[in-house]
Structures are given as structure tokens and as C-alpha cells.
Amino acid sequence: MLRQSGEISRIVYGSVDGSMEDPVCRQAERNLRACGIVAVYSDDVRSMFISCVKEIEALAEAMGIEFGKDMAEANLKVLHGLVFEMASWGIDTMCRFRTMCVLRKNSSFIWKTGGTARPNRWRKWMLRNYKMTVSYDGTRYNGWQKQKNTETTIQGKLEQILFRLTGKEISVQGAGRTDAGVHALGQVANFRLDTDLFEEGLLSYFNEYLPDDIAVLSLKTASERFHSRLSAAGKIYCYRMYTGNAKPVFDRRYVWKPDEIPDAERMRRAASFLVGRHDFRSFCGNRHMNKSTVRNLERISVEEACGGRELRLTFEGEGFLQNMVRILTGTLFECGIGEREPEEMTGILEALERSRAGQMAPAKGLTLMEVRY
Known about the structure:
By secondary structure, the protein is of the alpha+beta class. It is 26% helix and 24% strand. It has helices at 23-34, 46-62, 73-79, 91-97, 154-166, 199-209, 264-272, 324-336, 344-351; strands spanning 11-12, 83-87, 100-105, 108-112, 128-136, 173-174, 183-193, 214-221, 234-242, 276-279, 294-305, 310-317, 366-372. Strands 5, 6, 7, 8, 9, 10, 11, 12 and 13 form a nine-stranded mixed beta sheet that branches. It has a four-stranded mixed beta sheet with strand order 1-2-3-4, with helices on one face. A hairpin with a 4-residue loop joins strand 11 and strand 12 (310-317). Residues 1-22, 35-52 and 67-125 have low confidence and may be disordered.
């Protein structure tokens, strides 16, 4: 579905077929475009759209806006900030209820609906679904998920900004619940909001009031069905392990410096047994997990970086269990220093017991890099 764009709002409809041969519709479209409004039609239901256009014209005329004539400066100012939305629920439903038309000005709504539909029934269509990409340094936060006993969570901070903007409690849904101390370069979240702000203005508002260790990198209107977690096709995590001699002064918040230096080749051999679709219950931090623990781990790479002073472990998969990446990292590390043999990974997977896997690596070395859709 198309959405608001440009300086002047527009009539919006996600049409089945944008072509229009009816001269009456073409004239109506020209009238709307003369006001800086874009109308999109469908041939299959053009008579219904003609009716809707007439309703919209009647509403606009009641506000002193004339169609099909030269627009005075005053009328253009009235048009600025208006939002006309025509939302369709498919041909059958639309023929039953006609098309909902919402005229918004200064947060007040005028409803024009056919059939017996009631305004409250379509309340959710007044809210836009926003998708944003968030970056944060997780050092001083108790993870992503909002908690009752602390205000230092990423989700909580984002929701505080929305409360500041609207005075209402608005839920922000994240693609993944990163642990306390874990960082993110590409966390994705979504929320529903009715606001007069354009996307750029909303993005600026977030970054103006968020603390310096949280940033919203992008913010766009998403489809009504988009959900940051349920729509995700996969995630990519990176774990940084420092293997240099000197202290990592400037990177100390983002790397783990173990006491021993692991052998990267042994870690790669161990990782080869873990790639694929397996039951990763042995690598799950929640011992009481009652849902499926089967996941498809598509890739594990172990690469040297920073002139040999770092090992970077990249994990890519369709989804991860609680603490899974950190437990995988700790287990691979134990293989790297000779405490385990790479071939033991098969037995650990088959055991389905957390106690059979290795230690859980510290949170600070882990970063959520990307969420795939």
C-alpha cells in the first residue's frame, strides 16, 4: 500500500490496476492532482472510487477547498498537513463496506464509511506501522526487553521517547531480545503510531532525546502485516575475541580477552559439526524451554582480524535460542584451547543437555549485526 509522501499529503490506495480509461475518473484525477493530491484507481471497482472521490470532494469543499480551479495560496496552506487515506480490504469486502475515507486535520478525524461499519472497527487503520533499525552499546543496559524492576533496557528507552511524543503507552517490538551487555549494529523493531510527523521528523525526534549510546539509524513506514520478529527470515551475530598481547583499551567494551589464545583451525573443525538443522537444546540457556529447540544454523565462520589480534566468530541462522550464540562461542573456545575435541560436538548435540556444552562466553563480545527479511 502506498503511503504519505511529499510536502502535501495525498489520497492513498493500493490499487489492483492503476490504469484508468474512464473519462470521468481521469477528470477527477486531474482535479485532485491540481490540489497536489495523488489518487490511484482500479478499473475493477471504478464506480465505487468515483463515489469515494465525490465524498472526498464534498469534505474538502466544506473546508473551503475548491477542486478543478486555480488554487489560492490560502487553500494550499489548508491542504498542507491533511491526510486522505482510502484503505481497501479486497474486492469482496470493499463491495460490502465500500471504502473507508479518513480526513485528518489537527489530530481530529471525520469518518465517511458506507455500509454498517463502525469507526472503532477500523481503528487500527488509523495507525501506521513503522519499521526502524536501531544501533546500541549494550554495556550499561539490562538487555533489550523491558523489565519492571529497571528502566535501563533498550525497549524501555525507545518506549519512553514515544510516550514523551504522544503521552500514551506504545509498545515497541524487537526482532531479538539481546542479553544484558550485548550490543547491536542492526537491531530491527516496529511500532504502530498515529502522528503528524513525517518519517524524517520522527527519526530526528528519536535521536534528539535518546541517550548517546542508542541511535535509530533508519525509520520507514512498513506494511500493515510487518512484524520485526515474526517476519524475520534470519539473523547475523558476530562475537569478537581479543587475542593480542596488549590490553584492548579502546575496544574493551566490545571484545572478550580470554586468558588463553585458542587455535582457530580447531575451532573451525568443531564449528563444521554444528552447521545445519539440529536440536540445539544443549546450547540453550533456558533449561525449562518447552518449545521447539530445533534451529537451522546456516553458517559459522572463524576469521582472524586486526592483524591477528582478534578472532571474529560470525553466526548466521534463521533463529537463535536464549544465550545460544554465547554458549556456542564458549564451547568452540574450549575446543580451541584443547579442553575438548572438535568431534565431541556431535555428542553434545545428541545429549540435549545444557551441562554437556561448554561455558557461556561474556556478553560484551557479542553484537547483533543484521536481521534478514
